[in-house]
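Is this the right way to post structure tokens for a design question? Let me know if I should format differently. Anyway, here goes:
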């Protein structure tokens, strides 16, 4: 029993000894969520255990969320020189809030854009008796309101044709979802437009074999978690134009007259040929004059 107690005390002593001169780096929260144009402070806390290093290098970097995205260095601070090197693309937009006594090395970002939607890393490298490194990461999500969508018609608006109604927002993060609705005049209200003669794919509403019943006021709603915006299309399907009766009769008469004239000309040509071929010829080779009536 005594031997067990001594072994436990020795183990605790080793643990305390190994922690001398150690330091810890941590973050306040795993994810931040902000809007474009706003500012944010990413918190990074550290504890040197009252053993201030001879030299420390603190850096902030960022990497995109897609596979293959390259890490980008934002800034590097050198302690105790109090020198901070900020990369040109981040100048006038970032700052390091460093407080050694409080153990904070926070990154302040302003004028956020969708391009700032990344994973950020706070990294420490210190040198005292030995070199030590630690790093922690946090996620910054930058949301952007959807821009006003643009509605358009693709195809020929004529009965029996197939057309597309398109709806697209150029801006928006996360990417917007689209929903088409049609005003029902008889009901005086809107309904989500999905029937056997229509399909939706993203912001495209396909209408097949359109008719006058297809006509109406269509609205498209582009929406993400920040905002929703609407555009409208007033679809008019004109009736097919039937051929007037008098126009048909006139066309037939003209065609008949033309055919008669062609037939008469052919008969005249044939008759003239008969006179030449069948005319009486005298024995001297001259043509016999027509007899007087």
């Amino acid at each position: 029993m005594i031997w067990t107690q001594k072994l436990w005390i020795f183990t605790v002593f080793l643990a305390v000894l190994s922690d001398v001169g150690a330091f810890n780096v941590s973050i306040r929260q795993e994810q931040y969520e902000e809007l474009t144009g706003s500012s944010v402070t990413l918190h990074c806390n550290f504890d040197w255990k009252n053993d201030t290093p001879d030299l420390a290098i603190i850096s902030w970097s960022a990497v995109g969320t897609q596979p293959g995205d390259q890490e980008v260095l934002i800034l590097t601070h050198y302690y105790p020189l109090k020198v901070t090197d900020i990369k040109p693309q981040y100048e006038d937009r970032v700052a390091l809030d460093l407080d050694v006594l409080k153990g904070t090395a926070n990154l302040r970002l302003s004028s956020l854009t969708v391009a700032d939607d990344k994973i950020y890393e706070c990294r420490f490298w210190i040198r005292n008796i030995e070199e030590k490194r630690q790093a922690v990461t946090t996620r910054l999500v930058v949301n952007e309101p959807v821009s006003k969508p643009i509605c358009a018609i693709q195809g020929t608006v004529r009965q029996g044709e197939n057309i597309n109604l398109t709806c697209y927002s150029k801006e928006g993060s996360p990417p917007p979802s689209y929903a088409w609705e049609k005003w029902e005049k008889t009901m005086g209200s809107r309904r989500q437009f999905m029937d056997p003669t229509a399909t939706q794919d993203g912001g495209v509403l396909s209408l097949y074999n359109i008719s006058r019943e297809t006509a109406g006021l269509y609205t498209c709603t582009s929406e993400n978690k920040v905002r929703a915006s609407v555009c409208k299309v007033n679809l008019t399907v004109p009736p097919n134009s039937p051929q007037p009766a008098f126009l048909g009769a006139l066309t037939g008469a003209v065609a008949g007259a033309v055919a008669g004239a062609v037939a008469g000309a052919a008969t005249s040509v044939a008759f003239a040929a008969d006179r030449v071929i069948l005319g009486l010829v005298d024995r001297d080779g001259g043509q016999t004059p027509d007899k007087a009536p």
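Format looks fine. Someone answered above. Worth noting: Residues 168 and 243 are 40 Å apart (CA to CA). The first strand starts at residue 24 and ends at 27.
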